[in-house]
Hints:
The protein has 100 residues and is an alpha+beta fold. It folds into two domains: 1-54, Pemi-like Protein 1, Chain: D; 57-97. Helices cover 28% and strands 12% of the residues. It has a two-stranded antiparallel sheet. Strand 1 (36-41) and strand 2 form a beta hairpin. It starts with 21 loop residues before the first helix and ends in a 5-residue tail after the last helix. InterPro entries: SpoVT-AbrB_dom (IPR007159). Residues 10-57 form the SpoVT-AbrB domain.
Amino acid sequence: MKTPAFHGFVSVQSRGTVALPPVVRKRYGLDKPGSQVEITERSDGVLELRPVIAVPASQAWFWAENWQERERRADADIAAGRTTTYDNVDDFMDSLDIDE
């Protein structure tokens, strides 16, 4: 059974604060301190709100578009069977063409 989409009204406080209903906050993980929402004003007058998960600065590299493209390529290679796995490090090292 699909959860029905929320529709209702919220008040805008004097400082511009808007409180999202608890069911919406919980559904989108916005019930934790510091949660963020992206807002976009569309040309047709609609305000769009999107929940955003903050990424620690030390992990931002992983979410860069060029890294994500490489992740998608790796996922495609794995799905197509274009990878090799090894049971242990010794088997991997033996597979390398290294002159000793």
